[in-house]
Design goal:
Helix content of chain A: over 70%
Number of strands of chain B: 0
Largest sheet of chain B: none
Order of helices and strands of chain A: HHHHHHHHHH
Structural class of chain B: mainly alpha
Order of helices and strands of chain B: HHHHH
Radius of gyration of chain B: 19 Å
Oligomer: heterodimer
Number of helices of chain A: 10
Radius of gyration of chain A: 20 Å
Helix content of chain B: over 70%
Distance between the termini of chain A: 47 Å
Distance between the termini of chain B: 48 Å
Chain lengths: 287, 100
């Protein structure tokens, strides 16, 4: 990465900080949002030029499809349905982090197999695992939040409320941690990563499905924080500072916002954090 | 690599602290827009996605392509939706006294 690129990324990161700051005051909110958008544009343009990928059609195809979908969703959602729209978009960010980490793992595998490159470090494996884990939980968790707020019928299926939910969730979490440890030993093992992603997707679903619609805004705030952390983990995977900074900012400021919203809505922050919010009637709670 | 990793860890931790200090008080009307705007920023993973999509390995490019599409939806939709939500704040000019 050239110094010029790093400088541009630094400017983008600074714009993100100013953007989040601006968004927290009524008077500067509109400007804050625009600053964030300018920072994002700068980061993406820097990447396209810096990596010399301006002419890759796959990249443009993805960007056009995503932009059109984004504009369509943003302009067609009624004002009353904003929270679930945020949830949906948040889920998309989570799955994107999972996919990027998977792609990078595959590239590293090819390089070590065919080009005799040195095997990636344990840190690479752990970062990849965390991207998949947090990204996967964010994706399905956000989709459940979207479905609940949209009042889609299928999501309130009583069969989703499984007995001993806390035990199952605990076991799944343990398996996920085991998979991350596995990746620290075999950083380019695609099988471990695939299994981890599936476990994470199931975990995200189970964590959010018992929670009632009234509590969902707080849950979305927490999932928003998670998607930031997933992006930061992806930054470690691909060695890119702008992902690390932006993801970290959203991760920590998202936690603070979750706490503020909990206080405003009279919810327990700890309960939201550990997903025990809707767990009242699903058997004994872990303290 | 070892030194490089520590630089990243340092940046990560410092940025965490910045994020913790960034938001102090948020009026309830701004809860959703703030969530939405910072959500768009977490679409920064688009930067990683375009790099992955441009790779010459088939599977990585396919995963990257989907990642780009998802991340760009997150980014573009996120900033636009936030802008729409904030439409009500634009009515108040920046110069009006007695604002927040």
């Amino acid at each position: 990465m050239t110094p010029t690129m790093r400088l541009m990324y630094l400017i983008a990161a600074s714009l993100f900080i100013l953007g989040i700051k601006g968004l927290s005051h009524p008077r500067t909110a509109v400007r804050g949002n625009i600053l964030g958008a300018v920072g994002m544009l700068l980061a993406i343009v820097t990447t396209l030029i810096g990596y010399g990928i301006v002419s890759v059609w796959v990249v443009w195809a993805g960007m056009v499809i995503g932009s059109v979908a984004g504009v369509y969703l943003a302009l067609n959602v009624p004002m009353t349905a904003m929270p679930q729209m945020v949830a949906l978009l948040n889920g998309f960010g989570g799955i994107a982090s999972l996919l990027v980490a998977g792609a990078e793992l595959w590239l590293q595998l090819k390089e070590t197999q065919f080009e005799g490159a040195a095997s990636p470090t344990a840190a690479f494996g752990v970062s990849t695992g965390l991207s998949g884990l947090i990204g996967g939980v964010t994706f399905t968790g956000s989709l459940v939040a979207f479905a609940k707020l949209q009042e889609l019928k299928w999501i309130d299926n009583p069969q989703f409320v499984i007995p001993n939910r806390n035990l199952v969730v605990g076991l799944l979490a343990l398996l996920c941690v085991t998979a991350v440890v596995g990746l620290s030993r075999e950083p380019t093992n695609p099988l471990i990563y695939a299994v981890l992603c599936v476990l994470a997707l199931v975990l995200g679903f189970l964590l959010t499905v018992p929670i009632g619609g009234a509590d969902m805004p707080v849950v979305i705030a927490l999932l928003n924080s998670y998607s930031g952390l997933a992006a930061a983990a992806t930054g470690f995977v691909i060695n890119n500072d702008v992902l690390v900074i932006a993801g970290s900012l959203v991760g920590s400021s998202g936690i603070i916002l979750t706490r503020i919203m909990c206080k405003a809505m009279n919810r327990s922050f700890i309960n939201v954090l550990f997903g025990t919010m809707g767990g009242g009637d699903t058997g004994p709670k872990a303290d | 690599m070892g030194a490089d990793l520590m630089v990243f860890v340092t940046v990560f931790v410092l940025a965490l602290f910045v994020g913790f200090e960034l938001i102090v008080k948020v009026p309830p009307t701004l809860h959703t827009p703030l969530m939405s705007g910072s959500n768009a920023i977490s679409g920064i993973t688009a930067v990683g996605a375009v790099v992955a999509a441009s790779s010459n390995s088939g599977l990585a490019a396919v995963l990257g392509f989907f990642a780009v599409a998802f991340a760009m939806t997150n980014v573009v939709g996120g900033f636009l939706v936030t802008h729409r939500m904030l439409g009500m704040f634009k009515a108040r000019g920046t110069g009006t006294p007695g604002g927040h």
